[in-house]
Amino acid sequence: MNPATRLTLTQFLIEERRRFPLAAGDFNSLILNVALVCKRIARHVAAGELGGLMGSAAAVNIQGEDQKKLDVASNELFLEGNNWGGYLAGMVSEEMEDPYQIPDSYARGPYLLLFDPLDGSSNIDINVSIGSIFSVLRAPEPDRPVTVDDFLQPGVNQVAAGYALYGPATMFVLTVGSGVHGFTLCPQLGEFMLTHHDLKVPADTQEFAINASNSRFWDDPVRRYVDECLAGKTGARGKDFNMRWIASMVADAHRILMRGGVYLYPRDNKDPAKAGRLRLLYEANSIGFIIEQAGGRASCGARPVMTVKPAALHQRVGLVFGSRNEVELIERYHHHPLDRRSSDPLFHERSLFRATESRA
Ligand SMILES: O=P(O)(O)OC[C@H]1O[C@](O)(COP(=O)(O)O)[C@@H](O)[C@@H]1O
Ligand SMILES: [Mg+2]
Ligand SMILES: [Mg+2]
């Protein structure tokens, strides 16, 4: 396409409204304001050490995690950028214990915004790709202050989800339930331009992503899957796999959206009090919606993650997403666990992770 005739995000949303006239005008304002917030965050990220927002904020969030200055600043930008437009009934964030109420001086609206303002915090200070992730739900009763229960909706209720990726180029990736589209920030125009129309995740892959330092805590189905990937051509899969781990889920998700792959942050027995590492409302549902809209699959191991009814705002969940055939295989391994006393050699001498553990 001639770059000069590419649609901007605004033009794209206007076109989408023509196709789906039921969506209220408020909806476009919501998405455009989220995108504006992401542009502001992108500027801070690009400034790096010169911008004064690197390093620790010397505070701990509701997740019990150390906050970085950029976590705190990005959270503020999300709140201030979206509290005034009259399209939201309230917001929740990974960084805040309770829902954010729209101030009485502003109008309330029909939507709820849920977000992880800065994903990949451990990569902020080392100049590696990070991002912001968001999800949009309908408010059950827009005319009153929001309650925690309003946000405890399964992912299948989402009306939109997206992320910004602050990488070598800044991108905004969006689904409003009719496919997934990627927009690249044009620094000259300050506009997100449609560059990746109707993204699709290939059904098959030879690439997986997992934090292997947790291998001794994994359940059998995950161990079996990874062992088989590592065994490559010599094992049950009969093909070699490559491994990637960026430690910014948003960047791992973006790679998978671009060329396929599977990402696993499964529930494990490292800390039995935690049902996983990633947050259902701020990370798993949004990425799940995007991946499924692109033809992939997102699961908590045994079932689609978007069918989980949340019980708490900051609930964690095991997450597996990406190329459909791989995720379905992992789900099958959860439904039909292999007997650990199996004579399959993969579970004994040839298990690379097991061999490492027994030496440790
Ligand atoms: O430190 P680990 O175990 O590699 O975990 C990395 C994971 O943690 C996360 O950074 C969590 O997100 P936050 O930075 O928003 O807390 C994911 O993006 C990423 O996949
Ligand atoms: Mg995150
Ligand atoms: Mg975060």
Automatic annotation (TrEMBL):
Pathway: Carbohydrate biosynthesis. GO terms for biological process: fructose 1,6-bisphosphate metabolic process; fructose 6-phosphate metabolic process; fructose metabolic process; gluconeogenesis; sucrose biosynthetic process. It catalyses: beta-D-fructose 1,6-bisphosphate + H2O = beta-D-fructose 6-phosphate + phosphate. Its cofactor is Mg(2+). Residues 8-196 form the Fructose-1-6-bisphosphatase class I N-terminal domain. Binds 2 magnesium ions per subunit. Pfam families: FBPase (PF00316), FBPase_C (PF18913). Its EC number is 3.1.3.11. One of its GO terms (molecular function) is fructose 1,6-bisphosphate 1-phosphatase activity. It comes from the Bacteria. Keywords: Carbohydrate metabolism, Cytoplasm, Hydrolase, Magnesium, Metal-binding. Gene3D superfamilies: 3.40.190.80, Fructose-1,6-Bisphosphatase, subunit A, domain 1. Residues 201-334 form the Fructose-1-6-bisphosphatase class 1 C-terminal domain. The keyword Magnesium applies. The keyword Magnesium applies. One of its GO terms (cellular component) is cytosol. Homotetramer. This is Fructose-1,6-bisphosphatase class 1. It comes from Pollutimonas bauzanensis. The gene is fbp.
